[in-house]
Amino acid sequence: MARFNTSDEVWKAYQAAEDKYQQGDFNSAQQLFRQTAKWRESHLGRNHTDTLWSKYNVGRSLYKLGRYEEAEGYFQDTAQGRELTLGENDPNTLWSKYHLGETQYHLGKYGKASESFSQTARGRKTALGPDDPDTLWSTYQLAKSLEHLGKVAEAEQNYSETVRRREAVFGPRDINTLWSKYAFARLLLHMGKYSEAERVFRQTAEGREAVLGPEHSDTLWSKYYLAEALYSQGKVEEATRFSTAAYPLNRVPSNQKAPVPAGKSDKQDVFDFPTLMSTQSISTSSRLLFFLPHGKDELFFPRATNGRSRQRRTGEDCNS
Hints:
By secondary structure, the protein is mainly α. The chain contains 14 helices and no strands.
């Protein structure tokens, strides 16, 4: 454990921790941030701004290490401390709550995550406006959490708002607009709103093909689910056409593939989409389950890069 004699020594250690974080050495970063947090809490107080920055960055480092239980505690302390000292709608308070929500989401605590994201969304709408990118990330993450809770009507409302505002502000082919549409369309599909799901999947597939290319896995997933929405409406011919277009999913990395059908080997070319989509003996509900992807959480999407500098005296880091 390092011993600090002056606040300047603590500040140098804090800067060293930031450097370790940026280099991807999250374990060394969390150790240094912990040391600065301990010194600052004992000398400056539990809710001093600098103490809270140290604790917040312990949380960020632990999050990167996948130590979500520990990270949750640090984000909780930081959110509470910042709310007391800075106010509930201060940007740094809201970042603490946002990262708390992300951590709770990873832990499967969807009820708590929805509360954190709801508070963040409300605060950001007040402080930043409803169309700010950070506000829209909060709304989007709230929708994801609500969907996991089975609150599909509320999730639908928040997805719809995110799509509408992202499309208006950033355009229909912005990558995050397209992610929002994809998640929204999947919810609509699972709600049985096949016509609406078809419309949104079609927009997503066209947009992703234009932006990412026809062979990109995200483009193919959009076509894959568009085929499902079409088949569910009895549009077998068009569904077969899109399922054929999605066939290259058979060659994407294994952690992005759909489940292997019973009785087949994962070394075989099992994704015979035209045959599967036209198999009348498979019920629609079974087909929906059959085609769900596995190996990654497709509802936990990449976050936007907004060019902000890292944190403390120079601002927040959106990509922590």
